[in-house]
Amino acid sequence: MSETKPRALIVEDSPAWQEILAELLADEGLAVDVAGNLQAALALLSQTAHRLAVIDLSLEDRAGQNEDGLRVLEAIRRADPHCVAILLTGYATVEVAVNALTEGGAYTCLRKEMFRRAEFRSLIRKALAVAPASADRQPSSVTGALSPVAPEDAPPVLLVEDDAGWRTILAELLMDAGYQVHACSSYGEALGYLRRLPCVLAVVDLGLANSLDPRANRDGFRVLAAAQCSGIPAIVVSGLATPFDVERVYSEYGVFACLEKQAFQRTAFGRTVAEAVASGRAGRGQLAALTPRERDVLILLVRGLANKEIARELVISTNTVKRYLKSIFEKLGVDSRAAAVAVAVSAGLTPSSHQS
């Protein structure tokens, strides 16, 4: 007895796109159902379970005003929660794409003008490898949002995100805010950028893809450590961060903020980026005024050492430590140990900075 093929649903009003998608899905071993409008899609969903669905956002509307694809996503969440849904569109704004992820439960959102057959095949294989989702499945990605071009002299920002969709969305928001984005998906790429570019900010996902063990991979922590050593403020944007991860990125890596993808808000992200860049510029400017020895004292201050312990660590007298601290306070524009530590941490200086 032959094994039944998993089924895929195409919800697309364009015959040309129906043909392209049906061919690619069939090549991946899927039995394909096709619906050209919302009513046909709902009928098929009520009749048959599907492993995968590729859904056009705007059905029977060339102007892009129709968003029946979102209604199909809602129906899938209710009637077929094990189905992995992919939104395919030529019209989606950032808001629509994020909504498809966070509210509609889409696995990803592709832009038609960015469509590549080889990339789509790879995406389908990844989607089929995902464990069947539960009804409260969290979304994982959005791909191919708009791509505005930032001026060449715009401040450079490093974006480290392995999910192509979130990478595109975050890049668009950063470019809209006036930054030049250098996007990559791995620790190796990120390290190269950090070594050759004077970035004003790093936006980092914690769980970067790793072919050996993608679920356990946390190369994002290594990127944060490298950004910290370079004195670059960092924002974490992650869908996998545990409470322990959040505490760790703040305490060990001095990140400026940690944002969850599940609760992502465009305005909050933009505001956080502006504040992080401002704090980094201020912190780097102030720390640049310190002598190497004053910087050593400040690092030990961040570690929580008392004057006697700093003196013992640096083999100097406590009176010398006091003189260094007075000079540090003046250069940083603060009047307390706690305030000096706050400036240092905002500039990327943390307890681990003293470790060789």
Which properties best describe this structure?
alpha/beta; five-stranded parallel β-sheet; Arc Repressor Mutant, subunit A; 356 residues; Rossmann fold
SSE inventory with pairings:
Blueprint: E1 7-11, H1 15-27, E2 31-35, H2 38-47, E3 52-56, H3 68-79, E4 84-89, H4 94-102, E5 108-111, H5 117-129, E6 156-160, H6 164-176, E7 180-184, H7 187-196, E8 201-204, H8 219-229, E9 234-238, H9 243-251, E10 257-260, H10 266-288, H11 292-302, H12 307-314, H13 318-332, H14 337-346
Textual characterization of the structure:
- With 356 residues, this protein is α/β, with parallel strands linked by helices.
- It is 47% helix and 13% strand.
- The protein is built from 14 helices and 10 strands.
- The chain has helices at residues 15-27, 38-47, 68-79, 94-102, 117-129, 164-176, 187-196, 219-229, 243-251, 266-288, 292-302, 307-314, 318-332, 337-346, and strands at 7-11, 31-35, 52-56, 84-89, 108-111, 156-160, 180-184, 201-204, 234-238, 257-260.
- The protein has a 5-stranded parallel beta sheet with strand order 2-1-3-4-5, sandwiched between helices. Strands 7-6-8-9-10 form a 5-stranded parallel beta sheet, sandwiched between helices.
- Helix 4 links the parallel strand 4 and strand 5.
- Helix 2 (38-47) runs parallel beside helix 3 (68-79), helix 11 packs across helix 14 and helix 12 (307-314) packs across helix 13 (318-332).
- It starts with 6 loop residues before the first strand and ends in a 10-residue tail after the last helix.
